[in-house]
Design a protein that fits this description.
Blueprint lengths: L3 E10 L8 E8 L2 E6 L5 E6 L4 E4 L1 E3 L7 H4 L11 E6 L14 H12 L3 H7 L7 H9 L6 E7 H9 L1 H4 L6 H17 L3 E6 L18 H14 L3 E6 L5 H14 L3 E4 L9 H14 L4 E5 L4 E5 L12 H4 L6 H9 L1 H9 L7 H5 L7 E3 L14 H8 L3 H10 L7 E6 L7 H7 L4 E3 L16 H12 L8 H7 L2 H6 L16 E4 L5 E2 L3 E6 L3 E5 L2 E2 L1 E6 L2 E5 L2 E2 L16
Parallel strand pairs: 1-4, 1-5, 6-7, 7-8, 8-9, 9-10, 10-11, 11-12, 12-16
Antiparallel strand pairs: 1-2, 2-3, 5-17, 13-15, 14-15, 17-22, 18-21, 19-20, 22-23, 23-24
Helix pairs in contact: 5-7, 7-8, 8-9, 15-16
């Protein structure tokens, strides 16, 4: 008789604590790590990890699988990048609680903020829920490849309580706030991991309006946070542009002071205020010294938009000439863009758009790059489209058009939207190494036609611990800890992210020397034949969830041991 369900033998164990790696074995039984070290007993299944890394499963605390988890057993791309626990319901966006008459309103909100097309959500969502507890029950009934937890989104909560007034960002009354707090308390007790809200102008509904939670008053935010205090459960998650600087941060601070609940806030370097992130790190330092649990969620590469003819955006979408062909089938559009007459007409054209994003960002050829395969996420300024065009003696528009119409027309441009104002990832390095910051912001499951950052855990390992040439690297053990134990603790999941007896039996076996990230590709496998970006990697020999091998050599084994995690979990 085998003593264990699984034994991983002879690997270099990076246990998630930040301590130096060591050679040894890991034994798992009944979904839990039971022994780490030199193991004499046998396993019903054994993995030879000699020469490979053995790490805890990655814990990604910023994803948007709210819809995908209701129709798909596999939470990819996260699950193919070593993630074994994903947290969704971030940014105040989600699908519960909801009344029947508000289904389309929440679809429009998710479509606008997270770039998941209306037809995909319309066909994929079954809407067999109303309350947040109902939503969790619906999720729990579906087997998945990884564990997941859900947060109560402010946008859905506000619309549920206030209806049209909530959608139009009208001020909440005392009665509204009391009701939202009561529902937040109920959701935490039903198993929500936390509450999330959005306070950024970057988030819009599909018809261009601000999100329901944008501009919510401090008394509303503190009132809802008090619902979590009454439950004695839950974390707070916020995305904001920090308008007003420290005054905005102090609203978040007062949410924590009043409720006693931990809070994390998304943080990236904005080209509009490139030094603001330093101020935020300073405010976080002071808050933690004052005994408040506040963290920044940060990214290890630029938040980058992918532009191309197959994708949601391209540099010419606001040109009147392009609008003439925008609705034509892809092959017809590609043929038109290669036609010398139409090409000349397009390049002589100017974008017509009132939207400041289109005006500023899609003209940002100094921050736009060819992505390449493997992708280069820290390109030199001299590699920008503007610089390459100047060297060739042509306009940036012409160079960009050449890239996206070359070959089969699947070429993509990479627009470094955040974390790259200085043309390097030094700001990311500073944020990633801050003691009050953890890794996040992958947005797995969202932005299916513009962003493919679910691969953050893989690129963090490749770029920051092995391949970076433009500045200092990071210690491998530090990066592993930042996306396992530290992320888990940030959201109260203290039972995972560590390879130690008693902890969750989630791990990765990684061929570190051959770990490689491929360029994103397009797949048409969403409901209604919807399109999404997908990014694959080489080097994941095995991923284990709850003691079962879910992926081997990057391919699914068929095992679906993932479970809904209802609320916080104590340490082993």
């Amino acid at each position: 008789m085998s003593q264990y369900d699984l034994v991983v033998r002879g690997g270099t164990i990076i246990d998630g604590s930040g301590a130096d790696g060591f050679e040894g074995d890991v034994a798992i039984a009944k979904g839990r790590v039971v022994e780490v070290g030199k193991i004499a007993g046998s396993g019903a299944e054994e993995i030879d990890a000699k020469g490979k890394l053995v790490t805890p499963g990655f814990v990604d605390i910023h994803t948007h699988y709210d819809g995908q988890a209701t129709w798909d057993n596999r939470l990819a791309p996260s699950s193919i990048h070593g993630v074994t626990t994903a947290v969704f319901g971030n940014c105040g966006i989600g699908f519960a609680p909801v009344k029947t008459e508000d289904h389309d309103r929440l679809i429009s909100l998710m479509e606008g903020v997270e770039d998941i097309p209306h037809p995909v959500l319309k066909e994929g969502l079954k809407w067999n829920w109303e309350s947040f507890g109902d939503f969790l029950n619906a999720l729990e009934a579906i087997p998945h490849d990884i564990d997941f937890a859900a947060q109560l989104p402010h946008g859905a909560l506000r619309v549920y309580v206030m209806g049209e007034r909530g959608a139009k960002q009208e001020a909440a009354t005392d009665q509204d706030i009391f009701r939202m707090a009561a529902l937040a308390r109920e959701a935490m007790r039903d198993g929500a991991l936390g509450f999330s809200t959005s306070r950024t102008l970057n988030h819009k509904t599909a018809d261009g309006h601000n999100t329901p939670s944008y501009g919510a008053a401090e008394r509303e935010l503190v009132g809802i946070a008090m619902g979590l205090k009454q439950a004695g459960l839950g974390v707070l998650q916020v995305v904001t542009d920090f308008p007003g600087g420290e005054a905005e941060f102090n609203i978040l601070r007062r949410m924590v002071e009043a409720s006693g609940r931990p809070l994390s806030v998304s943080l990236a370097q904005s080209p509009l205020a490139p030094g603001l992130y330093k101020d935020v790190l300073g405010w976080l330092k002071q808050a933690n010294e004052d005994g408040l649990q506040m963290k920044a969620q940060v990214a290890g590469r630029p938040v980058g938009l992918l532009l191309g003819l197959h994708l949601t955006l391209n540099p010419f979408i606001a040109h009147p000439a392009y609008k003439e062909i925008a609705d034509k089938p892809f092959e017809e559009r590609l043929a038109a863009l290669r036609d010398p007459w139409f090409r000349a007409k397009l390049l002589a054209d100017k974008p017509h758009a009132d939207h400041p994003f289109v005006k500023s960002v899609l003209r940002g050829f100094g921050s736009m790059f060819e992505l390449g395969d493997p992708p280069n996420y820290e390109p030199l300024p001299s590699e920008a489209i503007a610089a390459k065009a100047a060297a060739k003696g042509i306009s940036p528009e012409e160079y960009a058009l050449d890239v996206i119409t070359a070959g089969d027309g699947s070429g993509a441009l990479y627009l470094t939207f955040l974390n790259y104002a200085n043309g390097s990832l030094d700001p990311s390095f500073e944020m990633m190494n801050d003691p009050n910051a953890v890794f996040g912001l992958s947005d797995g499951g969202a932005h299916v036609g513009t962003i493919c950052d679910g691969s953050f855990p893989t690129s963090n390992l490749i770029h920051w611990t092995r391949d970076r040439t433009r500045g200092p690297k990071m210690k491998l053990e530090h990066v592993i800890a930042k996306q396992t134990r530290e992320t888990a603790l940030t959201v109260g999941l203290a039972d995972r992210g560590l390879l130690k007896a008693g902890y969750k039996g989630d791990l990765n076996v990684i061929d570190y020397a051959n770990l490689r990230l491929h360029a994103p590709t397009i797949q048409y496998d969403l409901p209604s034949g919807g399109r999404r970006l997908m990014q694959y990697a080489d080097g994941y020999d095995a991923t284990v969830v709850n003691g079962q091998v879910t992926y081997r050599g990057g391919q699914p084994t068929g095992a679906l041991p993932g479970k809904l995690v209802r609320g916080a979990r104590d340490a082993a």
